[in-house]
Amino acid sequence: MTASPNEVFYDQAFRKNIQSIRLFLPDGVLWSSAYPIDDPTPITLAFDVLELGNTAAANDFQVKIIHCNADWRKSNLSNIDFLYDYNEFRVTNEAFSYNTQVDFTQYRMPLPRVKLPGNYIIWVYEGRDESNVVFTKRLMVYDQIMGVGAEVKRSNGAAERMTSHQIEFFVDFSNVNVPNPLDDIYVVIRQNYRWFNAIKGLEPTFVRQERQQLEYQHFDLQNNFYAGNEYRFFDLRTLTTLGQNVGDIRRDQMPIEVFLLPDRSRSRDVYSQYEDLNGAYVVSNLDNRGDELNADYVRTHFFLEADQKVTGDVYVVGAFNNRTLTPENRMIYDPALKGYTTDLLLKQGFYNYHYYVSDDQPNNSYVFDGSYFEVDNEYDILVYTRPIGSRGDILAGYTQISSRLGGR
User: Of 87, 259, 311, 340, which one's alpha carbon is 20 to 30 angstroms from that of 27?
Assistant: First the structure.
């Protein structure tokens, strides 16, 4: 596989033994690549290579950086346009797991600094063959040269007021030379940092030329999201006792198997507020305190009660699978058990997740979790433009807002 100009790039692992692909700040703090970074301080790529069956962990990995346009397709920029170094970086820092049933090697590498804000793909391959790609990961860098002000409201729609959030915002381009703002500014709105249900390319409703601002205040629900529900959660930080929402642990299996308590539909429940991580997870082992090299990988079984199969595919979604809908996290309906099942290999930690139904009707997406306007969601707005004479888009504005706070 090679990088094609027409290909849309995603967070994706191409081998089952590649796990826990993450980014860290220099002080060791986890940096979620789900949202952009504006600090030029180098960040560190980390990933685990598991020894599963006859698969050995030791490999020779190389990294290449690819600049992408707003649509996550490869731009026409050359390497020298966005990098200070030759675009080939070897991963040399490795550490080995200890006191785990599943052995793994963790690789780390500081990523090179980039010259330009924008979308980037971290392309990791084995040996000297770029086509032998093992995983790709998105990285966004922004420069706040455009201002973004936003607010989360209840939906204007009469039928949607109890279920949906409406995002209204403006973009200030007074510090940028934008000849045609209606065509030269492209916006993306995401809910809890998910790409699969993002609102893309929303047209402005008004241009305030005297202020050099674009306003986005739609009344036709184009800027609406079903709010969903607070995330479900489970605790795998200990394997000696049952953590929250864990029903059974089978330590005699290899890998260790964990069965979560059965989940049921919450669509008819009264909304209940509690703090969640909006889909995030934290790697940790409370049984043998230390660094995460002694956090084991366990086979985690999910079961969602359902009297009958619903229209569309059902997925387990969270940051642990990059908030994506893939065959790996798609559930299978078992008519004998009357429910949906799947199992995922997860590293010990505390996890948020929910069940999402991929269907042609958006209101069916939360058929198992329900949708309530009171939910505390995080939204972010990404603003792209292409500078005059450039051959690639840059990320020129960014903001995050909370539905509980109403925006900031």
Answer: 87
How many C-beta neighbours within 10 Å does residue 64 have?
Answer: 18
User: CA-to-CA distance for 345 and 164, rounded, in angstroms?
Assistant: 33
Q: Helix or strand or coil: residue 360? A: coil
Cβ neighbours for 104, distance < 8 A, ≥ 6 positions apart: 19, 48, 49, 50, 51, 57, 96, 97, 297
Q: Quote the CA–CA distance of 93 and 108 in Å, as a whole number.
A: 5
With 0-12 / 13-18 / 19 or more C-beta atoms within 10 angstroms meaning exposed / middle / buried, residue 177 is exposed
pTM greater than 0.85 (yes/no): yes
Residue 29 and residue 88: Cα distance in Å, rounded?
Answer: 26
31 and 23 Cβ atoms separated by less than 8 Å: yes
Q: What is the pLDDT of residues 345-396, one digit of tens each?
A: 999 999 999 999 998 776 679 999 999 999 999 999 999 999 998 999 999 9
Query: Which residue type, as a one-letter code, is found at position 145?
Result: I
Cβ 270 vs Cβ 162: under 8 Å: no
Q: Which two tokens stand for residue 95?
A: 């550490």
DSSP string, 132-188: SEEEEEEEEE----SEEEEEEEE-SSTTTTTTEEEEEEEEE-TTS--S-HHHHEEEE
Q: Using alpha carbons only, how large is the chain's radius of gyration in Å?
A: 22
DSSP type of residue 219: S
List the structure tokens of 325. 């809908």
Distance separating alpha carbons of residues 69 and 74, to the nearest angstrom: 6
Q: Contact at 8 Å (CB) between 197 and 219?
A: no
Q: What DSSP character marks residue 335?
A: T
Q: pLDDT tens digits for 248-294?
A: 999 999 999 999 999 999 999 999 888 899 999 999 999 887 788 99
Separate counts of helices (H) and strands (E) for the chain: 2, 28
CA distances (Å), 276 to each of 82, 167, 217, 224, 350, in order?
37, 21, 29, 22, 11
